[in-house]
Specification:
Chain lengths: 795, 795
């Protein structure tokens, strides 16, 4: 049974409803005749039909009950309309099928199961019908979007040419997404990252609805996308996970590792000889369906790849201040605070004359990261960011507690690899003739600064820690992250969220059950519509109370399909949380206290892959059983909800001067858990506009039974028992303690399932792969794990 | 190393080349100044740039050698241009990158490796340059299409508004695919399949470039697509593979099983009250990227789902004559030979006034099947079909030699299941109110007629054997099939091809290494461009000699990546073939002659799936080792190329009155063979028009090493030792012979690899699953397999 949860629907008073119905050309007079209103309304709800006969045919396809079609039912004047009649028709308009999806005898039962709203009584007065129609138009369809959106996708607004139209607080699809002006401009930055003595010019690609040419000013959805102009092959520069861990000799202080900005050189401005319109057509296509969805709703979409990408000047810095400045420069141009030119080297200036001065940033991963980066600049005109699966500190992407770690699935990647990957300027060989030396130096410097030898935090990483600058944020923030994202791990979003808590801005958090994916095409949540409410409020000044309408925290359940919980905050002690500490001797039990980390040997002998290792290390009976401690709790008698940041305190000794420690918290017990990738429900069902692009609709569903599943994990270099820059030498055989956090989680552990704790050494998927076998002994009596729980699941 | 094989490029004489260059607005005068011609040409090849400065910037991105960009190189008059200079620039225009894809010192080496054509000398005269540019424009890019197509995708023809434009024999992308008129019409058929006394009205959806409104007449690409308006859930009607095989008691003659058409009732025509334009907008989207690609090239695309689908009248018949008649009716309307109306029940007639009277059919699977079906009607106006993975006889889809078999991956599917699947009329509940009884009777009749009890051929299946009517075909035929398609198996295409051989039509055959997939987005073949040549010839009357230009048979190699062989014919004794017969006692060796078919027991005990069974049954060491004979040949010392239809002759006895026999021919030996699914090379790299849709680009690549791979297989009911309708009772313990064909194949077996023959009973993925264990004894000395080989691989 499908569940179409909905959070973006506003409850409007009747007068507002009538006004909005009238604005979209539907009957709206509560004093008008009841049946005439019904007839006139149903004549309008089949926009594909442009003649009375075609409308009658469309109505004949709808069953009202077992005897009448809508066409025959409308032939006899009706004085009342039962809810059953109304919703039999309504469900078919929403895309559901009588006889299969629902029964004509029980539409209300189906609507309740599907979480669709209904009016509370049969329809007797015209006002009853109008309000029921208003509610139905704002109800979600089987096609992800609301009924009014779905009608618009079939041409409901094709003859509307009167500027913006808002319905239920959201901008409607009245512009023509097919008729885009596609153009490039070059923005003059304050940077000279390629050292040629000239300001780096940054290409930006603009897709704007043609209606802007007629004078309508629109806001911009800007996606800073380093991948926009292509990526390079990185096989040759990807690192081998090192077989030896370094003995660290140098400890650092907070001051040592603090970034201090270098003074910017004073660069000459380009001479401008006049102003003109764009001279270059944008031949790249948009890459995010949510952006595309908003084109027909009166939002210009803008992409810019930044320094060092094809068509722009400069070199890449993998999240450095030059990349933040690149994104900020685009916003400054959009809001009139910076110059741009029609060509990369010419002197004709060009303005964003079509922009209403308000900008939102969107994007996932590196793209969402740059949205956070730009937000921390406090740049004027940036009203909100919707950042998904974003990095909030690059140290939390490529390093962890003094260890080199890999983004999940990309063992051997590092900052220098990503710099090569995104240096698409390399694709323009003409650019490269004079740039090869500079780029080679730049890359060497990144390789040096990222310091794969110690894995420690330093000033270079500190430059890339956007959380240092959260206090500068002036825009509202929407953060979205997958609870199973082991590429950009959840610490990035939760540490960011915690840093925002006390800032005087609006902030919203979405946590879904996906890995490193977008959220807008998941059927069970009206994320697209929520963002319409949000962006209409932020960028178009619609008075829709979006900050109060949308929950602060929306979390997808990991057990009940298509279920989303809303909370006031996440993992915060003030909000219905408690933390319990469990020792590892009685609370968790297991046979042993020692293990020998020979994971690399087994991994190589068995020709394992990272994926296979990750599956194997959490199996009750595992290839790696001798390379780990396997500790379990008794099954719980009640459902428990973990939420927040688990903390590990371990006392141990090892027989070597170096060691990696990994800890995994595991959900143990046979169960059909969600698959790692959402199922495709409809390959092209999410329509992004009238006669326009489509995207697939997906949903997370229970997959094949598994014995266990990773809840969360963490890794530490044992030479960094306190933090990522202070070092403590290890004396083999001598006990010491380490304290570190696991990745944040929200995890429903059903009754009868067990928590298991896996303590092991190197993580073949994430850490270096030392070949020397190290023996570990855990003093379980002096070790513990603290687990945070939500006390009242729906608190 | 990528290989961009090309078959659709025509060698044109210089005068034609100059004329065509002039037609697209490029310099074309061989008497003009050499350097001025070069300058003027390179100014035109950056259509995204609309000003001299923007063009100069684009030229600056191209390296001519290690010192000059195209911009600087063009600043000094040149009297010659070396091939190295020309192709350094050329490769960058084709989308390749200097320094990574190729070296500026050796562009010609790269072009040869990539199979790109080059002129044979440095450029001295203007004519040399013009001819080199012409060749380059018709050369394939990294983006699958030719350079001129790629330029068109960036706006090269955006200001061209002068009707069709042909270049190198192919229609160019000069129409606006974004500006489609989308409309529905209802075609009046001669059928009354739902028995309501009225002619079944058949909905057709039309996407036509807006230029037709201005009077340009275009041909139609018509796809008869039963899935177009959605499918139904079939879980409830899918059959369980039967645990018992029936003892057949009734044998049949050819006459018994011959279909005789029923007389068509004489039905009243609808009264027409006048003529009008469409009244219904088409809200379904096109489903085939090749169709979409041709919109901008001046082809209308038409989809119709046929009887029993949503928006149409009638009921489904799973390939019966009513479905052929549905497809033919659409062609008749397109060519002016049949009436259609603007609405399903109204009286306003409407004509295909925009159609030039020429139609091609396209589509894969059921869609391609209906293309074959329509072709066998001989309907006028249908000039060609491009049918991919098509069924040529439904018995060869759901049955085999007296056995019920499943399409690969769809165990339990049958004709009745597919009828339910495609009966999308069910989605219109208003339609269903009066139709439920009729549909239920129809479905019962299909269930009865398909006869899952005996699995024998009968008159009902004979109605669905399009090969009975090949002599009626008047159109040219392109057939495409995957050599690994175990859903619609290759016998469908090869038996069809063999039936076409002596007909006075043009026919082309493509065999690729995919399963049940389209071919147009595979990078190593210019199938899209080949079809442009073909359709320009067939539907637009272009004198491009397409039948001679395109190879008769094009086959993808299964060992060498990105390699396509061309042949005069397939598996035909007249063309460099020989067949060798191998006995199963000396030529093939193995330890045993007997096995007990307990496959169903093992399958169920091990909770196997069809996929797992198929992998397991061909493993050298297998779960099913006791349920099969495993016979092998010695490794071959040379590469051998199997091509054609292997034939099995077995003498055996079994200890039961019923039995299934399966035979698999296997390629044995560790090797990295192609994956079953092509790798995605570029997720959106195949651009279908200017500012228009994209599709992914794919390629078949060697995947992880496997021990063996299925070459081909076949199944027989042992009660049908001769054919699918004559029965012979089995006396347990008494020997008899069976003769049957395996699926056709083209398979390169490299030296040192072995052929293995697996003889077993039930096939869990394809046949019924009997639970009684049957013992088989093969008289190996009296048994043999005949294998057809291509003598000269490139013959």
């Amino acid at each position: 049974m499908m569940k179409l949860n909905q959070f973006a629907r506003i409850t409007a008073d009747p007068a507002t409803q009538y006004r909005e119905l009238a604005a979209i050309g539907l009957p709206a007079d509560p004093a008008a005749d009841f049946f005439a209103t019904i007839q006139a309304t149903y004549a309008k709800l089949f926009p594909v039909a442009s003649s009375p006969q075609a409308i009658a045919d469309a109505q004949a396809a709808i069953a009202v009950d077992d005897y009448d079609t809508l066409a025959t039912w409308l032939q006899t004047p009706q004085h009342t309309m039962t809810r059953r009649e109304f919703y039999n028709i309504g469900l078919q308009l929403l895309g559901f099928e009588a006889f299969t999806d629902f029964q004509l005898t029980a539409p209300l039962t189906f609507m309740a199961q599907t979480k669709l709203p209904v009016v509370d009584r049969d329809l007797i007065h015209t006002a009853d019908f109008l309000q029921a129609i208003y509610l139905l138009l704002t109800t979600r369809t089987k096609h992800l979007v609301t009924l009014l959106d779905d009608l618009a996708n079939r041409g409901f607004f094709k003859d509307y040419h009167d500027g913006y139209l808002f319905f239920n607080g959201k901008s409607q699809n009245v512009f023509d997404a097919r008729q885009l002006v596609r153009e490039c401009v070059w923005i003059e930055s304050d940077l000279d990252t390629d050292g040629d003595g000239q300001r780096d010019m940054l290409e930006a690609t603009i897709f704007r609805p043609k209606e802007t040419d007629a004078g309508i000013k629109m806001p911009a959805l800007f996606t800073a996308n380093p991948y926009f102009h292509g990526t390079n092959d990185v096989d040759a520069v990807t690192h081998d996970p090192d077989p030896k861990l370094a003995v660290k000799t140098e400890s650092h202080t907070k001051a040592d590792v603090t970034y201090h900005p270098a003074p910017q050189p004073d660069l000459p401005h380009r001479t401008a000889t006049g102003e003109g319109k764009a001279e270059v057509y944008a031949d790249e296509n948009g890459i995010y369906s949510l952006n595309d969805y908003f084109l027909g709703r009166g939002f210009v979409t803008v992409y810019s790849a930044g320094v060092g990408t094809r068509g722009s000047d400069g070199v890449r810095s993998t999240g450095g201040v030059s990349e933040t400045a690149s994104a900020v420069a685009v916003i400054e141009w959009l809001t009139g605070a910076r110059r741009a030119f029609t060509t990369r080297t010419g002197t004709t200036e060009t303005k964003a004359w079509w922009c209403n001065g308000k900008v939102a940033m969107t994007g996932k991963s590196y793209l969402g990261t740059l949205a956070i980066a730009a937000a921390t600049s406090g740049v004027a005109g940036l009203k909100t960011v919707i950042s998904e699966a974003a990095i909030s500190s690059w140290y939390d992407y490529y390093r962890e507690n003094g260890l080199v770690v890999a983004p999940g699935g990309y063992q051997g990647e590092d900052a220098d690899v990503l710099a090569v990957d995104t240096f698409s300027r390399q694709k323009a060989a003409g650019d490269m003739l004079k740039l090869r030396g500079k780029w080679s130096q730049t890359l060497d410097a990144i390789g040096q600064a990222q310091d794969r030898t110690t894995g420690d935090y330093n000033a270079w990483w500190d430059e890339r820690n956007y959380r240092n600058n959260l206090k500068n944020i002036r825009c509202d923030v929407v953060s979205v992250h997958g609870l199973n994202d082991w590429n950009v791990k959840p610490a990035n979003v939760i540490r960011f969220w915690n840093g925002l808590r006390d800032l005087p801005i609006q902030k919203k958090l979405f946590l879904h059950q996906g890995q490193h994916v977008y959220l807008n095409n998941v059927l069970s949540l009206d994320f697209t519509d929520m963002m319409n409410l949000w962006l209409s409020y932020e960028l178009l000044g619609v008075d829709n109370d979006a900050p109060a309408q949308l929950p602060n925290v929306t979390v997808q359940d990991n057990v009940e399909p298509e279920t989303w919980h809303t909370y006031a905050d996440f993992g915060h002690s003030a909000h219905a949380h408690k933390t319990r500490q469990y020792d590892l001797l009685g609370d968790f039990t297991g046979e042993r206290a020692s293990f020998a980390d020979n994971a690399t040997g087994t991994f190589k002998a068995r020709h394992q892959t990272s994926d296979l290792f990750e599956a194997e290390i959490i199996k009750p009976a595992s290839l790696y059983r001798d390379a780990r401690l396997w500790l379990t709790q008794a099954p719980a008698s009640d459902t428990r909800v973990l939420e927040g940041v688990p903390h590990v305190h371990l006392r141990l000794w090892i027989d070597a001067p170096t060691g990696i420690l990994s800890v995994r918290l595991v959900d143990l017990g046979p169960a059909k858990r969600f698959g790692t990738v959402a199922d495709v429900i409809d390959g092209a069902g999410y329509q992004l506009g009238y006669d326009y692009k489509t995207d697939k609709i997906v949903e997370f569903k229970p997959a094949a039974e598994t014995a266990s599943k990773l809840i969360t994990f963490g890794h530490v270099n044992l030479q960094n028992p306190k933090n990522a820059y202070e070092i403590q030498q290890i004396t083999p055989g001598e006990a010491f303690t380490v304290d570190f956090d696991l990745q944040p989680t929200h995890y429903v552990l059903p009754a009868e399932r067990q928590l298991a704790l896996v303590i092991h050494g190197a993580d073949m998927a994430q850490t270096q792969r030392p070949t020397a076998v190290v023996n570990y002994h855990i003093d379980r009596a002096s070790s513990s794990i603290s687990l945070p729980f939500r006390v009242n699941e729906n608190g």
